[in-house]
Amino acid sequence: MFLICLDCHGSIYKGHSPKRMKNAMLEAVSLVLEKLLFMSNFKFFSSGAPGEDKAGNTLYEINSFLRGDVLEVPRTHLTHYGIYLGDNRVAHMMPDILLALTEDRGLTQKVVSNKRLILGVICRVASIRVDTVEDFAYGAEILVNHLDRSLKKKALLNEEVAQRAEKLLGITPYSLLWNNCEHFVTYCRFGIAISPQADKFCENVKIIIRDQRSVLASAVLGLASIVCLGLASYTTLPAIFIPFCLWMAG
C-alpha cells in the first residue's frame, strides 16, 4: 500500500517508509493543534458562563442604565448579553440543566453555576430569566448598547425593547448557533434575531473545511485509527467518508 503525503513545500512523495508515515502523522497532529489554536482566538459562543475567578463585588453605575438598554459583558472566550428592565433587573438567556430536572423555582432561580450551564448547553435547555445586574455581570465590565454601533442597525424604542424581553421570559430551547443570548437580545433591540458571534464561528469552520490540509489530516488520522483499532466498520467508514466529505466540501 502506498502512502501519499505532502512536505512543507507542497511536493508529493510516494513510498513505504515508516519514517515518512510518522512525519505525516506528526504533520496531522500539528495541523489539528493549529486549528484548535486558531479557533481559540475568536469569541465564538454566547453562553454567559460566569468566570470562577471573578470577584463578583464590582460596583456598577446602575443609575446610568435605561430601561431597554442592551448590556454586554465581554469575557475571555465569549460575550454575554442582556436587556436592562430597570430597578436593577436584567433579562437574559441562560442554559440551565436544572430546568429539565425540576420545577422548583427556589432551585432554578439561584445563580446558574458553570456546571449547570455547560450541561444545559449540551441538553439544549435554557430560560430567559431575570437577575440583578451584579449576578448578570458577575464582576465583569459592562458595555451599554455596544451592539448599536457594531451592527449599525436602528434600534427600537427602549420601552418596546423592554416589553419584548418581558414577553419572552420563561423556558426556551437553546442552541449555540441558532438560539443563544445574542439572538434574544438582537430580536428585542432590532426586531431581527441574529448572532454575529455564531456567524463568525461558521465562517471559520468554512475556512477550516476549505483548507485541503484538513483532508490530509483526516485521512492520516483515519489510517492511524485503523492501524491501532483494527479493520472494522466503526473505523473504516469514518476513515473513508470524513476525508471524502471534506474533499467535496472544499
UniProtKB/TrEMBL annotation:
Record field: transmembrane: 216-249
The Gene Ontology terms for molecular function here are:
acyltransferase activity
Q: Tell whether Amino-acid biosynthesis is among the UniProt keywords.
A: no
Instruction: List, alphabetically, the PROSITE patterns matched.
Output: LRAT (PS51934)
Q: What keywords appear on the UniProt entry?
A: Acyltransferase, Membrane, Transferase, Transmembrane, Transmembrane helix
Q: Which domain of life is it from?
A: Eukaryota
Native species of this protein?
A: Odocoileus virginianus (White-tailed deer)
Gene field? LRAT
**Cited Pfam families:** LRAT (PF04970)
Please verify whether the record's keywords include Acyltransferase.
Answer: yes
Q: What is this protein called?
A: Lecithin retinol acyltransferase isoform X4
Q: Which residue intervals define the domain LRAT in the entry?
A: 70-197
